[in-house]
Amino acid sequence: MAQIFPPWWNKLPLAAAIVGGIVPVLAVAGVWYFFSPWYTDVGYQPVQPVPYSHKLHVGELGLDCRYCHASVEISSVANIPPTQTCMNCHQLVKRDSEVLAPIRDSAASGRPMRWIRVHELPDYAYFTHRSHVTAGIGCVTCHGRIDEMVTVTQMAPLSMGWCLECHRNPSPNRRPVSEVTNMKWTPPRDPQVRLAQLEHERPVNPPTDCSGCHR
Amino acid sequence: MSRTYWRSLAQLEDNPESRAFLEREFPEGASEPAEGITRREMITLLGASMSIAGLAGCDIVRRPVENIVPYVNAPEDLVPGIPRYYATTMPFGRSNYGLIVESHEGRPTKIEGNPAHPSTLGASSSRIQASVLGLYDPDRSQVVRLKGEQKSWADFVTAWAELSKAHAADSGAGLAILSESFSSPTLARLTTEFRARYPKATWATYEAVSDENRLAGLKSATGRDLDLMLKIDQASVILALDADPLLSDPEMVRHARGFAAGRRAGASGGVMNRLYVVEGVFSLTGSMADHRLRLESRQIAAFLAALAARIASPGAGSGAAIPGVDPRWIDAVAKDLQANRGKGLIVAGDRQPAAVHAAVCALNESLGNTGKTVSYFETKDAALPSVSSLASLVSAMKGGTVQTLVVLGGNPVFDAPADLDFAAAIAKVPHSIVLGHAIDETSSKAEWHVPRAHYLESWGDARALGGTLSIVQPLILPLFGGKTSVEVLGLIVADKDRPGYDIVRDTWKPILGEAEFDKKWNRVLHDGLLAGSELPEVAPGVKGDAVASLAGASGSADGLEIVFVPSPSLHDGRFANDGWLQELPDPLTKLTWDNPALVSPKTAASLGLATEDLIRVESSGRSLELPVSVLPGMSDGVVAVTLGYGRSLAGRIGSGVGFDAFKLRSSGAPGFASGAKVTKAGRRYSLSATQEHGSMEGRPIVRESTLTELRSKPEATEPAAGAEPGAGAHAENSSPAPKEGGGTPSALGVFPEHTPHYSLWNPHAYDRGHQWGMTIDLNSCIGCNACMTACQSENNIPVVGKDQVKRGREMHWIRVDRYFSGDPEGNPEVVYQPVPCMHCEDAPCEQVCPVAATVHDGEGLNVMVYNRCIGTRYCSNNCPYKVRRFNFYNFTKDKPESLKLAMNPDVTVRSRGVMEKCTYCTQRITRVKIDAKLAGREIKDGDVKTACQQACPASAIEFGDIRDASSRVAKAKADPRNYALLEELNTKPRTTYLAKVRNPNPEMEGIA
């Protein structure tokens, strides 16, 4: 009669212990990362109806962010420019470009463009551009090096934990308000100089209460 | 005097049903899962959603693609994300409300009163608040129709050109216009032009609920068409005869401001007004009375005659006795009025006959009140309502002499007197043209129907009571292609299709002068009124003996009296399709979605009726079956029916809700009639009230005192311990305690002072930044519910429907509790108490939430984090104030697209399974904080106004920073009348109340 339990069964408790220990850890770690905005949102790069290149316009031609996103300092939203703003230049520049056809159509027909939102917060989170920009938080801090992007990509997870990191300690991310739209600004090495730069700016005390962002 | 408060008759009788209701934590059904889903179905559903999740794979985690749609050409000055505010005017019959409307990216979302306009003074009413929902009503008609067939406005213009040719030939002999009453320079100008062009045409003006009797009374007393303005703030003694100036009256906002100012003045050491009310139907004004006499409407004339006799010759015999009325009551009122010459005010209700109004005018004149507490103005630019004009129009229609009838708004098929049978008459008219908001009862019978523009889509103008001119400015192009009455009348008068804007500007050119017209016009648009356009007051010059004619005004007194009451929410039915107003509880009955007949407990007993019985009411040959509700404080022998319900073609909200009391109303007796018969139909009908929900079990929830008691307690006027936040419960307990210990218990001192509480919790330090707090002055609050609708509009609060209200699932973040005290069969007194979230510093809800979905912020707000909430409802269980509301369903899921436009974009729309509650309008606080921070200034007291506070016509609500000792709210909290609700629980609420103060006449003690 053959043995009911072959000898390799002796290793079973060890195997069970290893699997039992590793699988839950992997599972937790997997959910932790793969379900988090670090995985799901960062790198989102939708194809827009017109392949507008920030790299060309900002990086090479040197447009200021606020030429198009004009309401960023006064409103909660940094507006997407109306078709008219594109046509300001493109009625003279690249008038026959094929990729710009939707823009020209929009201007001619009065039908608005339908851009795809890249940076999206949940509906219960109320973010205000004007508070951040006027507090010396640079565009690049949240949006990354837009001036190097051919297609805009989400660089930060925009998760609550990520927001709170800065709300609890905003200083490392602050810069003089005059440098907010500067994509290439780097903080001075000397902390004293840096402090002196911020001295003239308005004091910031970002909320960490729920009611700061949720209404 | 120790009072027993009760919330309903059932509670007072302590019947088993009521006990069971109270002893449950929540009303029946409120805590059970939804019906209709079995366990098996549930598992199926769960399985299905799991597999969908599996199918979608990882993409399910990625949110759906969202578009950003910018303008093509951005409008100048419009910045996305920044709301804009425009002044406009809401016409409401001959009343006109000056408003400031908030607009988000071109869609109006929130309405507030215009502080500069005399009709609103910055406040509003629930109807004004709810009118924004009417704009987006998806049931509004959207196309011009010819006998039900879709046509265009151009088709109508062509058709009218044909019709006008025929009418021009015979000077308009076969042409008739039926209009609502209005007060508008442009409409008045067009009316004059119409009469000039068609001299033989008929013009009728009808308003189902109107002040026609008052106009007729003033005309008979003075020989002129006069408007009357009450200056309640100037009055020390007010006598209201079957009148409801604080709620039903179109000028209620102005009246409430004045009345509350007089109450507050008294509580802070000045003169407090005293309100006497004589009425049959318990009205909101009656519930505010210091002395109230229950008297049938038909007896008011006799009462007034007796009062006039006493005023004319004080000390003379008591005159004719009125059955059931203590002559000493009349003596005392007469004496009080005489002692306050020039500071008294007598006001009669719109349903009283003209003779009563004439006599009231004469009495006010003889008491020297004219020009002081009551002013008169020539009616100007107005179409005055007249039932007789409608009656003669209807007989002409039936006689076949009317070829073309134009109905300029209104819904006469529904609300015209039943004996006229307007529906039959309109069927005999070959060409009927109806301008209406919806395919309603009247439009559906018309040949031509033209959709009517909402006032927020219209160009128009208005003359408010007192003469102030303003412009009706549109905030949005007509959503459904509606036309205004100005445009339709403009077409009829000139045969030219002109935009309303041009027509209105034509009217205003002579008013403002041609020089710099555009500049002045823009100034009027900006301010919301034309400065200096008030009319001069006129002396009425009473002719003849108006009082003597009272003798003939008393009708027969046989049998039950039926009284027709306009609905405080739906008015004459025009707001029937407005969910906010349908779900707004009646101030006294707290009933929603229905209009039962109201009777007193004694009358109910004698007729063998109980609440929710179906009864058949017969009056002058017509009958109506409707449910009955027993309301204490009603006059015995009176049955009150509420108008405006029972619409058959209102839309998906209002059709078939309630019972059509217009079916009982005749042109001869539009206000009240004798000889009504009530029989039991033998069936029951279920009513949905918010009445018993969250009863407070007889604890000292509302506190009140009398002016005499308040003044006689010197210690009571001492400033109470500071309301420094976080300083402990004993400091918060600032209601004055009886220092003599066990002395005469007054309402203010009757409540035991609580020994210092010791908290189980570590105290929060609320010692930095702003610390928000609120006070609600029960002495000012009139219980009108404006705060409820304002909150609903500001905070995207859903409407849940009659069935859900019955289960106690109404969603209002602020409710107005109504407590009766005293004899239910006699004349009970009423206190109203608005209850929002108390924002307790030691909040019981926070301690029990397993997921920390409700927590405190540093400024003392008890915040609700929707995205954390998992819907255990423990918080609601543990809330002693029962102010938390749970989304049993996704109430906004099936909302029609157009209604979504009415939502406030600054407030999260809650989903199913989430708890919600008052946030102190945290979105408004945040906006002001950011504005102030960016402007580099401090927040001033008054910068932050909650929606309820801003709307309150009685200014009963104060909100602000309680750390700032100079703020209005801190000062209110230092008032000796300040107390916290259920302070023995040591929750340290941030919302506190100021006790109510009554001002009874000391000479009337013991006189019922």
Characterise the protein shown here.
- The complex is a heterodimer of chains A (215) and B (1008).
- Chain A has 215 residues and is an all-alpha fold.
- Helix content of chain A is 39%, strand content 1%.
- Chain A has 10 helices and 1 strand.
- The mean pLDDT of chain A is 89.
- Chain B has 1008 residues and is of the alpha/beta class.
- Chain B folds into 4 domains: 5-15 and 698-998, Alpha-Beta Plaits, CATH 3.30.70.20; 144-210 and 383-511, 3-Layer(aba) Sandwich (Rossmann fold); 226-378, 3-Layer(aba) Sandwich (Dimethylsulfoxide Reductase, domain 2), CATH 3.40.228; 556-689, Barwin-like endoglucanases.
- Chain B contains 30 helices and 42 strands.
- In chain B, the strands form 13 sheets. In chain B, strands 7-6-20-19-18-8-10 form a 7-stranded mixed sheet, with helices on both faces. In chain B, strands 25-27-26-29-23-28 form a 6-stranded mixed sheet.
- In chain B, β33 and β34 form a beta hairpin.
- Chain B is globular, with a radius of gyration of 29 Å.
- The relative contact order of chain B is 0.12.
- The interface between A and B is large, with 44 and 40 residues.
- β1 (115-116) of chain A pairs antiparallel with β2 (67-68) of chain B, so a sheet runs across the interface.
- Percent helix range of chain A: 25-40%
Main beta sheet of chain A:
none
Shape of chain A: extended
**N-to-C CA distance of chain B:** 16 Å
Please tell me the overall pLDDT of chain B.
86
Count the DSSP helices of chain A. Answer: 10
Greatest chain-chain interface? Answer: A-B, 44 and 40 residues
The major β-sheet of chain B equals: 7 strands, mixed
The low-confidence parts of chain A are: none
CA radius of gyration of chain B: 29 Å
| Order of strands, widest sheet of chain B | 7-6-20-19-18-8-10
Q: What is the CATH domain class of the largest domain in chain B?
A: Alpha Beta
